[in-house]
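Hello Y.,

Per our agreement to keep a running log of every chain we model this quarter, I'm adding this entry. I've kept the format consistent with earlier entries: sequence first, then predicted structure.
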Amino acid sequence: MPDIDFSKDEKAALVRKIQLYFNEELGQQIGQFDAEFLIDFVSRELGAYYYNRGLQDAQATLAAKLDDVQDAIYQLELPTEFRK
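Predicted structure for the entry above:
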C-alpha cells in the first residue's frame, strides 16, 4: 500500500476534526502536533485496513456493473438455432 499523504488543507481539516472530537467526546484539549502525530499513527497502523476495504467495495461495485453490462449484452442477442 502506498503511503497516504494528505495535502496541507486536508491535514488541517483532519487536525480540526480530531481536536473537536477530543474536546467534545473526551473533554480534553489536544494540540496540533499531537493531532498530527495521531493522524500519522492511524494512517500508518490502521490505514491499510481502510484502504483494503475501499478496494473491496470498489471491486464489488465494478463486479455488479459488469453483471449489468453482461445482462444488457445478452438481451441484445438475436435468436438463432444456437439460442432460442
